[in-house]
Amino acid sequence: MGVLNIVKNDRGGQIMLGVLLVITILVPLLNLFVPETNPLHVPTYTVTLMGKYLTLALLAVAVDLVWGYLGILTLGHGAFFALGGYAMGMYLMRQIGDRGVYGNPELPDFMVFLDWQELPWFWQGFDQFWFAAIMIMLVPGVLAFIFGWLAFRSRVSGVYLSIITQAMTYALMLAFYRNEMGFGGNNGLTDFKDLVGFSLQEDTTRIGLFVLSAVALAVGYLICRHLMNSRLGRVCIAVRDAESRARFMGYRVENVKLWIFVISAMLAGVAGALYVPQVGIINPNEFSPINSIEIVVWVAVGGRATLYGAVIGALLINYAKTYFTAELPDVWLFALGGIFVLVTLLLPKGVTGFVAGLKQHKEVSA
Amino acid sequence: MLKIEGLNQYYGQSHTLWDVDLHIPEGQCTVLMGRNGVGKTTLLQCIMGHQAVKSGSMMLDGADLLKASVEQRPRVGIGYVPQGRQIFPLLSVEENLQVGLPVRARNDRKIPEYIFELFPVLAEMMHRRGGDLSGGQQQQLAIGRALVVNPKLLILDEPTEGIQPNVVTEIGDIIRKLNREMGLTVLLVEQKLPFARKVGDRFCILDRGRHVAEGEMEALDDKLVAQYLTV
Amino acid sequence: MSKAFDNKSRGLDLLVETSHPRTSEILQLLSDSQLYYHKKDKRLFIITHYVTGKVAKDLQGNEQVIKKKRDFKKVTLNNKMRGQINRIQAELGLNADNPQQREAAVRDLLKDITPGTVATLKTRFLIEESKNVREMINIALAINDLKSSDDVLLSNAIEQLDGSLEQESRSALVAFVSTAQSPLLKKQAQIALKGIEDKVQYYGWLETLYFGLSLGSVLVLAGIGLAITFGVMGVINMAHGELIMIGAYTTYVIQLLMPDHIEWSILVAIPAAFVVSGLVGIAIERGVIRFLYGRPLETLLATFGISLILQQAVRSLFSPLNRSVETPDWMSGLIQINPVFSLTLSRLYIILFCLVVFVALLLVLKKTALGLQVRAVSQNRAMARSMGIRSNRVDALTFGLGSGVAGIAGVALSQLTNVGPNMGQAYIIDSFMVVVFGGVGNLWGTLVAGLSLGVANKVLEPWAGAVLAKVLMLIFIILFIQKRPRGLFPQRGRAAEG
Amino acid sequence: EETIKVGILHSLSGTMAISETTLKDTMLMLIDEQNAKGGLLGKKLEAVVVDPASNWPLFAEKARELVSKEKVDAVFGCWTSVSRKSVLPVFEETNSLLFYPVQYEGEESSKNVFYTGAAPNQQAVPAVDYLMDQGVERWVLAGTDYVYPRTTNKILEAYLKAKGVAAEDIMVNYTPFGHSDWQSIVSDIKKFGSTGKKTAVVSTINGDANVPFYKELGSQGVAASDIPVVAFSVGEEELSGIDTGPLVGHLAAWNYFMSVDSEANDEFIDSWQTYIKNEDRVTNDPMEAHYLGFKMWVEAVKKSGTTEPAIVQDSIIGVSVPNLTGGYATMMPNHHITKPVLIGEIQDDGQFEVVWNTAGTVAGDAWSDFLEGSKDLISDWRAPLSCGNYNVKTAKCSGQNF
Amino acid sequence: MSIISAFEQAVDRNHVYPFLVPKQAPKLDVSHNVLLYLEDITVSFDGFKAINNLNLYINDGELRCIIGPNGAGKTTMMDIITGKTQPDSGSAWFGQTINLLEMDEPAIAQAGIGRKFQKPTIFEELTVWENLELAMADDRNVWSILNARINSEQSSMLLETIELIGLQANTKMLAGKLSHGQKQWLEIGMLLMQKPRLLLVDEPVAGMTHQEMDRTAELLSSLAGRHSVVVVEHDMDFVRNLAGKDRTVTVLHQGSVLSEGSMNKVQQDPKVVEVYLGE
Ligand SMILES: Nc1ncnc2c1ncn2[C@@H]1O[C@H](COP(=O)(O)OP(=O)(O)OP(=O)(O)O)[C@@H](O)[C@H]1O
Ligand SMILES: Nc1ncnc2c1ncn2[C@@H]1O[C@H](COP(=O)(O)OP(=O)(O)OP(=O)(O)O)[C@@H](O)[C@H]1O
Ligand SMILES: NC(N)=O
Ligand SMILES: [Mg+2]
Ligand SMILES: [Mg+2]
C-alpha cells in the first residue's frame, strides 16, 4: 500500500503514526462512551486541547520541512498559519448570520458597531464553505508564492531571509491590528457559533475537529515524508548544504525552494484553519514574530530534519506550557526557558536525536 | 624534537589512527606520506590538538604536548599550514599575518620582514582580503602566517597543492632554507614524490592509519613506493 | 468641588491687586506645590518635604514640626489656576532682571492682548534695553495694531509681522486676511503670510529630520550591541533585548542608591550598566553559548530560553510593574531655536551618545588586537586557535562587549520609555531588522541602517500614520533585501560566497 | 474538606502581566480576608490561579480548564477586551460566571459576564463634559489602534459633534500597541493646540505606550496648563512607573482614586499594603472593581445560599455593596454596575487629586446611545426579558444561543 | 504601449507574456566545430583586472590544458563560463547559438557545461551514492525530480562510476567524512554523471598521488572526443602527460593569453618559463 511504502524506512514515523492512530480511535471512545465518573473518561476539555496540540504539530511539521530539509530558517511561518486561521474565522463569522448581537444578517458585529455599511469585497464568498476551504490553502499559498518568488529569485538567503520572513509576519501583524483592515482589529474574530451546520459547542463537533486534526497531521506528515523520500528531498538537502553547487549541477534552486515553501505554507494554513474553531478566536497576535520563533523552537527541541521530531517537539512544549501555566503560574517561564537551554546543551539533536543516539549506543555496545 | 608513541584516534566509532609512532628529529625535514585517506591530515590535527586522542603520548622537546591546549601549541613553537589553507577570508593579507603577533615576544610584535622577502606577492597584496586571493597566493599567505609565530617546528599539510611550478620550486627552496639555514624543524605532508625527495631528509609512511615505514630519504625505494604509495 | 477652585482663583486675583511684595514668592510656592495649610487653624505653611518629623514654616518664618501625616493639607490647584498663575507671573516677569525672562514674559502675553497689556508693553518698551525684547514687544503691538482701521498703521504692522514665526502673528494675519477691507493690504498680508508659511514648512522638514535622526539613534543604540554578538560572532542572540533591559534596571537601581544625586546618576549608570550587562553576557557565554559554536541555529533556541528566564527573573525580583527612572534636569527641556522649531535636549544627548558609542566600538573592533582576534575567531575558529588566539577569552570578552553595549543602550532607553520586564521584547525585532538591513558584520551598516530607517519612518509617519508607516517600512525592507540580498553594506568578493 | 473554588484568570507573564499581576494579588487578598471572616456558606474559599500569559487563545483554554477541570464557581479575570471576547463563548457554553474589572468599550452584555469596570458613559463622556466646562474647544482624540479606543472615540466624536464642536476642531490619531516614539505626534498635538483655542487631549493610549508618551510630553514642554491630557487607562499603578514631575496637572477619569478620603478606602489601602508587604504599593481603579465584584458575588451567594452559577446569576442583580469612595455600587440588570465618576489631576507624588466628580453614581450603559447600531438596544437579564441585546424598535432579542 | 492595447492584450486569452515563456536554451549548434567562444572578455574586481581582453576558443571534442601562474585568472574564467561571474565586457558563446552571458548557472549547466571546483565541493550530508545520483543527467524540473526513479540503466551507470572513482567501500558513507583526495574523486565522479558536453576541470589532481594522477589523466583523455574538456592544473607532469604531443596548451597570464600551442612549444617559450615554469 502506498502509505506503508512512504514510511517504509521511517521507524520514527511509523511509531508516531501508530500512536496517533490509537489516540484518534481511543480518545473519542473514552470521551463518548465512558461515563464521566470513570477515571478513564477523557473530558471534552482534554479532547479539544489535544486537537489544538495536533494542529500545532502540523504547523511544526510544515516548518521542519523548510527549515530542517531546505535550511530556510523561517521566522514568519506563523503568518501562514494565521492566514489559514483567518480564512476559517471569516467563514465562521459569516455562519453567525443574524445571530450576532446587533442581528445584522450580513455584517459581523464588529463592523456594525464601527458603523460599516457594507461587507468589504474580500469578505465576499466566505459564507460558502467550499470557498473558505479553498482560501485556507490558497491565501497562504499565494503569499508564500509571491514572497518566495521574489526572495528566492534574488537569492536572498541565510539570516537575511530569516529576517525578511520575520518582517513579513510583523508587517501583517501590524496591518491586521488596524481596525481599518476589516478583520476586527485586536479583538480579531470570535464568538463563532457553528461549522458546516454543526454547533461548535457540541461535544461531537469537538471530537470531529479533533479527529480531523489528527487526520490532517497524518496526511501532512505523509505528504512531507513522501516529498523528502523522493529525489526532490535529496535535492533539498543538497541545496541546504551547498546551494551554489546544486545550481552548477543544473538544478533550479529557486524553484525547488519556492515549491517546498508554498507547500509548507499551505500545510500551515490548514493547521491554522483547524486551530481556530478549536480555540474559538483568531487575532493578529498569531502573526507576532515571537510566535513564529517559538515554532522553530519546538522543531529544534524535537529534533530537526526528522519530521516526527517536529511533532514530538510541538506536543511536548505545548503540553509543558499547559501544565506549567496551571501548576507553576508564577514561575513557569523559568521552567520553560530552562528546558530550552538544557535541551540545546544536553540534546544537541533534540529529543529524537537523543533517543536515536541511545539506540545506536546500545547497538554498538551490544 | 617531536616524539609520538602509540597514538590512537577515532572519528566517532571509526578507528582512524592505529598505534602510530612518529619521531621528528630536531633540525630535520621529515616528509609524511601515504595514499589518500590514510590519516595524514588526521595525525597533524592530533598534533595541533584539533582532534582528540584516545591513547598514546606526544612529547615536544620532552614536554607533554597533550596537556597543552590548542592555543598553547603555537606558543610552544609549532607553526601550522593546514590543508586547504584556511585563510581568514574577510581579513586583509596584513591582518591575516597580524593574527599571530600576540604569540611573539612582547617587544617584537611586528611581522618579520623576511616573510615579505620570501613571498613578495604578500607585500603586493597587503590590503586585499585574504579570501579574494587566488589559491596559490593563499598558500603563500598560509605559510607566511605560520612563520609569524616564530615556530621551531613547522608543520605543512600538502603546501604545494595548487601552486604554480616555479612557486612550488620556490616553496621547496624556502622550506629547505627555513630548515637548513634557519634551523627550523619541518614536518611536511606531501604526495608529490619528486618534491618530497628534494626537500625531505627523512620520510615516514602511513597506511590505513598505521605507521608502516620510515627512514632516510635515500631509503625510499621503488618497492616501498609501489607498496604504499600507489593505488 | 469646582466652586472651591473658583474661589481660590478669585483669591489669586485679589492677591495681585494688592500688589503685595511677596506676591511672586507665593505664586512660585503655589506652582511648586509647597504651600500647605494647617487643617485646624487654617494657617498657611511652607513645606518643602512633606514627611513627618520635618519642619513646616509659616509665612512669617515661624517653624513647626510636622507631627502627623494628616495635619496639613496642600493648597491644590487645577489647570485653570495654573494658567492664571503663569499669566500673572508673566506680567510680573516683564520687569525681571533677566532679558530672556522678559522676552518669555512678552511672549506669554501674546496669547491674549488686552488694552491693559498694550499699555504695559508700551511703557516697558520705552525703558527696554534688550533688542530681542523690544522686537518681541513690537510684534505684540503689531498684533494689536492689526485690529485698527488705520491703513498706515496696518501696513506697518503687517511689515512688522512679516517673517515672525510666533503662532499669534500667524493667527492675527490669517484673521486679518479673512476680514481685510483694502485689497492692497490684503495682498500685502497674504505675501507676508506666505513667507511665514514657507519658513514654517522649512522648519517642519528640519524637525522631521531631527525626529528621524533621534528615532534612528535609538534604533542604532538598540541594535549596535547585537551587531557584535550577532553580526560579528554569529550568535542569534534572542536575549539581546533582555540585556538592554538589564541596563535599564541598572539605571533604576543606581538612582535608588543615590537619591540625592539624581543629576549624576545617569553618568554613573553608564559604566555600571556596561559592567552589569557585560557580566551577565559573559555568564551567558561561558554557561551556554560556548558549547554551541559552529551551531549558530541552536544559539537561537538557547538564547530564547535565556530571554524567558531573564524576563521572569526581573518580574520576580522587581515586580512586573514598570519602574520609574527620573530624567536629570540637565537632560530635560528643550533648546527653542524659534517658535516653530526646537530641539528636545534628551534626544539631542541621545543622538550624541549614539555617535560616541558607535565611534568607540568602531575603534575597538578596527584598531585593537582584540578586534582583530574577534574577527579571526568568527571567521575560522579552529585556525585562529592554531595561531595562538585564546578563543575562549576572546569569545567571552566579545560577547561581554556586545552585551555591555546593550546595557548602555538600556540606560539611554530608560530616559525615553518604560523600564519594565517587557522592554526587551519591544526592541529585539527592531534590533535584528537594523543589523540585517545594514549588512551583517558591518558596523557602519548598522549605523546607516538605523538612522535611515529612523528618518524614513518619520517622513512617512505624517501622511501614513504611525501604524501604516511602520508597515510600509517593513515592506520596504523586504523589497530592499531583494535588491541587495546582503544588506546595505554587504561583504563583497569571493570571501563572502565561500 | 470541601471548599468553594474561585478562579483567577490574569496574565502573570507576557505583555499584560504588568497590569494584571496586581489584580491576581488583589483577588488573593480578598479571598484571604473572606476566609479570615469564616469563608462563605461555612466553607473556605480556595483560589485557583492560572497564567494565560497574555495569549488570547490561551485565555480560552485556561478558562475552560478552570470551569471544566477545576470546577470553580466563579472566575475573576481578564483585562483586555480581546481576552474577554476570547473566553466569552466558554463561559456562555458552560453557563458559569466571569467578573471583568476593567473599563471597556461597552457594546456587550453577556448573561455570564459581570462588568465591574466602567462603560464609556461612566468614564469618557463625563470627562469630556468636565473639560468642556473648563473651556476646552479643540480636541485631540489619541488612542492605541484597537477596539476600545476606536469605539470610545467614535462615541466621543458623536458626542462632541452633538455638542456643536466643528469637525476641524477634532483631531484623531491612532498608534500601534507599545508605540514608543511619540515625537511627531506630540509635535503635531502642540501645533494643533497653538491656534489660540483651548485644546485638550483625550487619551485612550494603552499600557506600555503611555510612559514614552508622557515622557515626550514632558520633554517637548507640553504643560497641563497649556494642553491638558485626560487619560482613561492611566492610573496610580501606571504612574508608579513614570517620573511624574513633568506631568503634574494632567488628568485621568476613573471611578476610584487611591487618594479618595474615605474610611473604607483607608482600610482597603492598609490591608493591601500589609498583604503585599510594601508600603509604597498603590491601589487603582480595576482593583476597586474586583473588590466590588467580589463583594457582590459574596453577597449574592449568601442571598441565594448556593454558589451555583445559574442561581447566583439571578440573585446578584440588584445587590448593592459599599464602594471605596463612600457610596454604593449596585449590580444593574444589564450586568454593569453603578459608579461615581471622578476626574483627578496628577500630582508629583504619583497620586491623583480629585478635581471634579459626579454628584451621585452613574449606571453603566452596555449599549451606547451615540452609536448608530446600538442606540436601540437595551439589556436586561431579569425575567421575562432575559436578553442582553433587545432591540426596542424591532422588539426582538437578537439570536443568541440561550 | 497605449492603455487600450495593453488592455486588449490583457483580455486576449491567447496572448502569452514573455515572462511566462519558459526560458529554453536554443539547441546547441557546433557546425563550425567550435564549442566555446570567449571573446574580448574583461572582468575587474574593485579596479583590479582579473581577466583582461581574453580570447579563447575550444573546439568540439578537444581536450585543452590551461596553465598559468596563481592568480592568472583561470578560475575566474571558469566562473564566467558557468555564469557565476558576469564579465564587464566581451562575449561568451556555447556553439553558434547559445549566448552564455544571458543565462544563469542552472541554464548553463543544463545546456551541457559541467564543472569541477578547485576546492572540492560536494554535498556533505548526503552519501556518496546520493551525491552521484543527484549529479546524474536527468530531467531537472521540480515535478520530474519529485517523481524520479532510478532505472536499471542508470543504476548500472552509478555503479560503474563508483568503481571508477574507487569509492566502492564508501557508497553509503556521508560524503563529508571522506578525506580530501576522496572528495576530489567524488567530484570527478559527479562531473561524469552529469554527462556534460563541455567539462571544466579545475585542478583535479591536487592532493593525489602520482599513480592516481596517471589514472585521472587517462580518464580525462578517454573523455575527449565525445566531450570537450578544459583542464586547469599546475602539476606539469600531469599536464605533460595529458597534453601529449599534439594537444593545445594555453598559458594565461594576468588575465590574458600569454602563449598557446603544443606542450613542447609552450614549454620553450621564454616568457612562460619566466612567469610560470621557472628554472
Ligand atoms: N570528520 C570526520 N569524520 C569521520 N571520518 C573522517 C573525518 N575526517 C576524515 N575522516 C576519515 O578519516 C580518514 C583519514 O582522513 P585524512 O583526512 O586524515 O586523510 P589524509 O591522509 O589526509 O588524505 P588526503 O591525502 O586525501 O588528504 C579518511 O578515510 C576519512 O574518510
Ligand atoms: N571576487 C574577487 N574579488 C577580488 N579579487 C578577486 C576576486 N576573484 C578573483 N580575484 C582576483 O583575481 C585574480 C585571478 O584569480 P583566479 O582565482 O582566477 O586565479 P587562478 O588563475 O585560478 O589562480 P590559481 O591557480 O592560484 O587558482 C586573483 O589575483 C584574485 O585575487
Ligand atoms: N478594555 C480594555 N481597556 O481593553
Ligand atoms: Mg589530508
Ligand atoms: Mg584557480
UniProtKB/TrEMBL annotation, chain A:
It is a multi-pass membrane protein. This is Urea transport system permease protein. NCBIfam families: urea_trans_UrtC (TIGR03408). The keyword ATP-binding does not apply. It comes from Neptunomonas japonica JAMM 1380. It is found in: Cell inner membrane. GO terms for molecular function: branched-chain amino acid transmembrane transporter activity. InterPro entries: ABC_transp_permease, ABC_transptr_urea_perm_UrtC, LivM-like. The chain crosses the membrane at residues 12-33, 79-97, 129-152, 159-177, 207-224, 256-275, 295-319, 331-348. PANTHER family: HIGH-AFFINITY BRANCHED-CHAIN AMINO ACID TRANSPORT SYSTEM PERMEASE (PTHR30482), SLR1201 PROTEIN (PTHR30482:SF4).
From TrEMBL, chain B:
The keyword NAD does not apply. This is Urea transport system ATP-binding protein. GO terms for molecular function: ATP binding; ATP hydrolysis activity; branched-chain amino acid transmembrane transporter activity. GO terms for biological process: L-amino acid transport. Residues 2-231 form the ABC transporter domain. Keywords: Amino-acid transport, ATP-binding, Nucleotide-binding, Transport. SUPFAM superfamilies: P-loop containing nucleoside triphosphate hydrolases. The lineage of its organism: Bacteria, Pseudomonadati, Pseudomonadota, Gammaproteobacteria, Oceanospirillales. InterPro entries: AAA+_ATPase, ABC_transporter-like_ATP-bd, ABC_transptr_urea_ATP-bd_UrtE, BCAA_Transport_ATP-bd_LivF, P-loop_NTPase. Pfam families: ABC_tran. It comes from the Bacteria. Belongs to the ABC transporter superfamily.
From TrEMBL, chain C:
The keyword Transcription does not apply. GO terms for molecular function: transmembrane transporter activity. The chain crosses the membrane at residues 209-232, 264-284, 296-314, 348-365, 432-456, 462-481. Pfam families: BPD_transp_2 (PF02653). GO terms for biological process: amino acid transport. CDD domains: TM_PBP1_LivH_like (cd06582). InterPro entries: ABC_transp_permease, ABC_UrtB_bac, BCAA_transport_permease. Keywords: Amino-acid transport, Cell membrane, Membrane, Transmembrane, Transmembrane helix, Transport. It is a multi-pass membrane protein. GO terms for cellular component: plasma membrane. NCBIfam families: urea_trans_UrtB. Belongs to the binding-protein-dependent transport system permease family. LivHM subfamily. This is Urea transport system permease protein.
UniProtKB/TrEMBL annotation, chain E:
Keywords: ATP-binding, Nucleotide-binding, Transport. SUPFAM superfamilies: P-loop containing nucleoside triphosphate hydrolases (SSF52540). This is Urea transport system ATP-binding protein. One of its GO terms (cellular component) is plasma membrane. Residues 36-279 form the ABC transporter domain. NCBIfam families: urea_trans_UrtD. Transmembrane segments: none annotated. InterPro entries: ABC_AA/LPS_Transport, ABC_transporter-like_ATP-bd, ABC_transptr_urea_ATP-bd_UrtD, P-loop_NTPase. GO terms for molecular function: ATP binding; ATP hydrolysis activity. PANTHER family: CONSERVED COMPONENT OF ABC TRANSPORTER FOR NATURAL AMINO ACIDS-RELATED, HIGH-AFFINITY BRANCHED-CHAIN AMINO ACID TRANSPORT ATP-BINDING PROTEIN. The gene is urtD.
